[in-house]
Write a structure and sequence with these properties.
- The chain is mainly beta.
- It has a single domain (about 30-175), classed as Lipocalin (Beta Barrel).
- It is about 10% helix and about 50% strand.
- It is built from 1 helix and 10 strands, in the order αββββββββββ.
- It has a 10-stranded antiparallel β-barrel with strand order 1-2-3-4-5-6-7-8-9-10.
- A hairpin with an 8-residue loop joins β1 and β2 (about 55-65).
- The longest helix is centred in the first third of the chain and has 20 residues, at about 1-20.
- The termini are far apart.
Length: about 180
């Protein structure tokens, strides 16, 4: 009986040591984007740009995981109002590139524009993507910067800026809530 008890104790300790020696499963970086997924209601300002006057915007965002949870698909749609007669609509597709160790964002827009941006990921409560934006309507390609800042589990701010002559110019700023 003592031999059996001793054997059980040895087996238990070997199992504990084997579990402790097993490398931890790597964290799925892609799901760091969960914080911006889901449904949001946004309100803010589109600033004057390219002949468009500044105006208030109201928008909805719906984001969900697609294609075996390898892509976060976000659909942004502004509401048409008297002040915003040409509402903006965007489909954004986010993923994580294991080779580059960067988050990637590709977007397509209802004005014919598109962008390809990348990010190092969250820095505190801020997530910033930067890259070339091919503006619709024949506008020149410009570097764009999309920024999300967490303000709690159910609130964030979003802004989009373009680089103009070495300086960033804000085109839109919104507060979004769940």
């Amino acid at each position: 009986m003592k031999v059996r008890s001793a054997l059980i104790i040895v087996v238990v300790f070997l199992a504990i040591f084997a579990i402790a020696a097993t490398p931890a499963k790597p964290v799925n970086k892609l799901h760091e984007l969960d914080a911006i997924g889901g449904k949001w209601q946004c309100k803010g300002t589109a600033f004057a740009f390219a002949g468009m006057p500044a105006h208030l915007v109201v928008a909805s965002v719906n984001g969900g995981w697609i294609l075996n949870n390898k892509w976060l698909d976000m659909h942004y749609a502004e509401t048409k109002t008297k002040e915003n007669s040409m509402p903006f609509e965007v489909r954004g597709f986010f993923t994580y590139d294991e080779t580059a160790k960067k988050f990637e964002l590709g977007s397509i827009e209802n004005d014919g524009g598109y962008s390809v941006e990348e990010s190092n990921g969250w820095e505190g409560d801020k997530l910033v993507f930067v890259g070339p934006n091919h503006m619709g309507g024949g506008a020149p390609v410009m570097n764009g910067k999309d920024t999300w800042t967490k303000k709690g589990a159910n609130s964030l701010t979003y802004s989009f800026e373009i680089e103009d002559k070495g300086a960033w110019k804000k085109l839109i700023e919104e507060t979004c809530t769940r």
